[in-house]
Amino acid sequence: MLPTPEVGEWSAAEPIKEDKLAALDVVPLCIKIVSYAQPPKHIWANRTYLQLTGQTLEAFRAQDASAPSDSCSKVFAARYQHCQVEKKKLMEPADFSADDKPRERDNGVENMCVPVSLQYRTGEVEEGVMITKWPAEVKRNLEGSNKYMKKLLECSPYPLCLFNFNGHLITCNPAAVAVFGNTIWLQSDIFGMSERERCGLDPDQLKNHSASFTIERTERCTAYEAMMEALVEDGSSYQTDLMIRRRGGSGAEEFWYCRVFAQRHKDPITGEPLIMISHQDVTELRKVEGELGRMEMSANTKHDLMKHDSDVAGSLMVLLGEDWNFADDKSSGGEGVVSTDGKSETLTPRSMESTVSADSVNMGQRPAQLHGLRACLDKADEWEFNVFDLEKESDGLPLQVLCWHLFMKHNLIEEFQLDQIKLINFLRTIENGHQDNPYHNATHVADVMQSMHCLLIKGGIGKFVGKLEKFAGLFSAIVHDFEHRGFNNDFLIKTVDEWAINSNDKSPNESHHLSAAFRILRQPECDFMHRMNPEMKSKFRKMVIDMVMATDMGEHMAIVSKLKTEIQKRIENPDDEIGDDPPESLRILVMQGAIKVADIGHLYAELSVHIEWSERLEEEMWRQGDVEKERNMKVSFLMDRQKPGVTKSQPGFIDFVVRPLFETWVSCFPESNVLLDRINQNYAVWQTKEKH
Ligand SMILES: [Zn+2]
Predict the structure, then answer these.
(1) Would you name the residues annotated as active-site residues?
(2) What domains can be seen in the chain, in order of their start residue?
């Protein structure tokens, strides 16, 4: 007989023995047990909980004096009753938080409660509720599988295995059995070592089992050695992702990715050193991160880079709600039709066949939430676009997701031989580099990118610009506010900020956005344009610099008048050698105008979106005003919280700043006429507000 996990003795129905609680100290979740019998009292908390709250167990218990308020305890009692009645639903979101404050969903952490009965050493039994704090994401993944949740340790959503240092599995929780199957005892070292490689396990036990679980050999040996090396250092930890092949329920081989996290621990009972290993199925995550391609690549070195790239594309298309199994139906892979200058152009990402054959991959169901994202991205070709919807549907990654979508639509990846993995790294770095400012944040950037896209596909500038300008236009939108701190140029110059010093006071913000972004691009892992030729790259760089520098509002009127004279002149005199190939200076000027229009594109958004952005801008300006006050500086115009802000002077802003740009713009590009109409509609609303 194979050993049964010790934790199997524990179930919600059977009392937990008091001395077994110590085992929960190694669980990296906050766990406490509270009794809601009258009067409510704290019974026990694990070490993670105590460390986080800075208490001793005695202090935690002593808190019983400050029992929850009457209304709270009613909620607790009701919840407890509910749990008792519905034992099937052991994992229920609680209506209260672990610190007994009203429930709040902070950072994706949810509180779970499970009814338990605790058996003291004296034999006495007490009913309680075990409250666990754990990441909501993990909870969602496991929610559907209640059958794994019957035992006490299942309060931990992580498959947990405890090993001693010779690789012998001491115990594991049911979540681990659920993930690894009943053969977990054969995979004693979790890296899937073969019989001879394994130690600490009785070979007799192996005879009746055929291993159905393999990891690429070199990789697992390296990972195992690296882990042991890391763990020899006291208190250290080790993390790696392994690609694992296994036989699924139907007998078919499936692939998945397992993130192994190992930490050195002491056995809470014997004090012996041991390794705690948690496993997380990161298959979905890996796909989204585009790393599947890389893993596949190392597994199939014969495959060329193109195929590896298309795997990554496949990964991202999954994120975008496209079919993953392109081999099944190639025509379904990310088609998009972009109309340029009246001509319709079908843009299909390059060959999408995966290096993994369709039948060997069981990637599971496409998450339903992607449908929302897909629907949102479908609207990206419209002037009227709600970027806040995108922010929500893309799980807070509007910049990366939209950029990928638009690069695919414009076929830029194929056209410029972009390195997809590096592009993903670049976009991730850029998105992360955006601060959480009310206005100048990654969502604003996504908004500008979307406006730029619309100007390119239907704003009438298509006839002036080529592929490289389109690429540079979208790229400029991505980086044009990179690392913005919410201060304007004037402030940076007055305070002799580092950015002002670096730029000699010439557009300190814009200079920084550019240089910082190009510095990221120079990092080998982010250099997604490495296959472009140097000449084209330097042209591209010049365009991007010209465009981003043009977003300095200090240059506003100069650019408007240049647009007026240069472009209007050309349009009025079509014989003037404009032809099919307008000079570079003119193309750059058009793109400068485009990014300026896009940068204040919220002015022509639907009213609610426009008002939201205006209020955010007002708040950001007020925050600068607050800093100015703190520093005893004169508070800048419109930046004093005590006085009317930008939302009170919108008509004036439109009259003197916005209208000159847009009137010039639509006279050059009548296709954009609708923008001015929409601005006028929003303008009328502001005017009525001003009157009241
Ligand atoms: Zn901007």
Answers:
(1) 440
(2) 10-154 (3.30.450.20), 160-281 (3.30.450.20), 396-691 (1.10.1300.10)
